[in-house]
Amino acid sequence: MAGDARLHIRAAALEVRNLSKAFGATRVVSDVSFRVAGGSLLTLLGPSGSGKTTSLRMISGFEEPTEGQILVADVDITERPAHKRNIGVVFQQYALFPHLTVFQNIAYPLEMRRSGKAEIRSRVEAALDLVRLQGYEARYPHQLSGGQQQRVALARAIVFEPPVLLMDEPLGALDKRLRETMQVEVRRLQQELGITTVSVTHDQVEALVMSDVIAVMDGGVLHQLGSPLEVYQRPATQFVADFIGESNLLVGSLSGAEAGPLTFTTAKGLRIRTDGGAGGAAAAHIVIRPEHVRIGADAEHAVNHYAAEVLEVLYVGDLVKYRVVAETGDELWAKTLAPSTGLRFRPGQSVTVGWDPSDSLTVSA
Fold first, then answer.
1. Which residues lie closer than 8 Å to 129 by C-beta, 6 or more apart?
2. Which of 67, 155, 164, 259 is the most exposed place for a label (fewest CB within 10 A)?
3. What does the pLDDT read at residue 171?
4. Rounded distance, CA 181 to CA 118, Å?
5. Are the beta carbons of 196 and 163 closer than 8 angstroms?
6. pTM of the prediction?
7. Which residues, 6+ apart, have CB-to-CB distance to 183 below 8 Å?
């Protein structure tokens, strides 16, 4: 880094209270609340039309809420225009100025704030160092790769030292390999700066890799708020279980005493011991992750174990996926590490499948 050039960001907590947005009679965000601790990264995760981008636009000031409040460092900024919120934003398409160099693009927010030339140079150099683009100052956006353009957009969003950073599908335009690399890079940068960040994505893996907290949305409603481990291992609803990762999702009903063993019986009659879950007595589905389904001799000592037939085998390099059918007709996927010598099971083969009660979670619809 040139000289002692360095960015000094004072992270601030971001809070959203009962945020709602309606376009005419259509409600696209409904009563969403969450708090992001200073220096943490929260991801708004959901499919298209879930309300995640609209929520981000309300936080940034580009969309006016119908109801609710937005607070930064416990100060209500709901009524402030976007340019007075002092929030950094990385847009989905980066929105770089094609006629400006990398240096000029990054310097633009500082020039709008009438910073001095020495300060501008110092901060731009610091931002370039953080995103590892030293030596690219004189290039234009069309001379950069997609990953480099994304780094310039990030540098521009943080160069004025905002307490909060917003990112709208920041990696959406990148190919798979580069996207995976940039997930780690963006997370490194966010942690190094200690900047409070809200990111929007529909990519479950991206959310799991990058986030401290994930807010899962669908239909404008916040379904679950929790750590990556919590939303994956303990999904609160059928939607969360189905949307994040792969799931065996079986329909049925729950029975048993509150303090005693619980049994979930599928619509086809498969009886499954379970430790329960988020659905309580109203649980209508049970979730078993494919990686928790043992197959073959490994399954015979599981509390829940069943005779089954292999229907389909998918070899995907490091993993093998088996679609099996139990005697009741319930179909399940099992996922195992690929053996180094051939496949363990073939279609038509009789096997035992099984899992423990702690690996079967009941959820409501």
1. 1, 2, 5
2. 259
3. 83
4. 33
5. yes
6. 0.91
7. 171, 206, 209, 210
Q: Which residue has the tokens 């990385």?
A: 90
Taking the CA of residue 303 as centre, how many other CA atoms within 13 Å lie in the half-sphere pointing to its CB?
Answer: 14
Identify the pLDDT of residue 15: 98
The Cα–Cα gap between 227 and 239 comes to: 17
Residue type, 355: W
Round to whole Å and give the CA distance between 355 and 250: 14
Instruction: Give the pLDDT mean for 22-40.
Output: 96
Burial of 262: CB neighbours in 10 Å, binned 0-12, 13-18, 19+: buried
Name the β-bridge partners of 3: none
